[in-house]
Each structure stands twice: as C-alpha cells, then as structure tokens.
C-alpha cells in the first residue's frame, strides 16, 4: 500500500515590510521544442503588482532557463519601477531559493506560456488570463 500525503496548500512567504517580492520559474513544453521563464511580483500584503513571461524556441537547458528567469525578474522590476537598478550596485536584489509550494503560481504561468509562440509578455494591471493567479494571496 502506498500512503499519499494530503496536498499542502500553496504557501507564500511575504517579503519584508515595504518591499516587493518577485518569484521566478522556468518550464519546458511537453514536446521539448519550446520553453518559457516567468516572473510574478507581489507586495508584502500579497497584492499582485505585475507578471511577465518569455517563451523561447529550442532552448531546453533547465540551468540556462533558471538563469534567464532571474534576468527576467530584473526586467519585470524595471518595468514596474520597483528598483532603481544601477550597473555597479545590486544591493536592492536578494536571491533566495524557496520550495515549490511557495512558487506554484509562477510555475503554472511558466508551464502555460511554454506552449505559446516565441516572445515576451507583460501583465501590469491585470493578472495573466492564461492561468489562475489571484489578485491577492492569503498571508
């Protein structure tokens, strides 16, 4: 007999007060022909601020996609005006690895866009219409 654990609800870890948090992930389509990176930004109250995703043809290295996802986080931050990015200082950015249960929504976004045509997509006012991303997360 196999025991199955009950599914844990997604657990979002808020950033420190006054800061925004951008979570990232990458995904490869079922066919392996296309891939995508995605980023979702929320404030310390869990309020959705924006999201972005980039779809690629022929790129299927998980390591390379994770690096590109981090770069996309910086692009989203710039689009949102969340950080004043300077080439000589990244004091405003902190990279932290979190478990899958705290990045479910961005994982689902990366999977959803991985089968779309190549290009960058940006959602600043509304949540992406291709996946279920709530406007506010319970804290």
Automatic annotation (TrEMBL):
This is RNase H type-1 domain-containing protein. It comes from Brachypodium distachyon (Purple false brome). Transmembrane segments: none annotated. The lineage of its organism: Eukaryota, Viridiplantae, Streptophyta, Embryophyta, Tracheophyta. Residues 25-81 form the RNase H type-1 domain. InterPro entries: RNase_H-like_EbsB-rel, RNaseH-like_sf, RNaseH_domain. One of its GO terms (molecular function) is nucleic acid binding. It holds the Pfam family RVT_3.
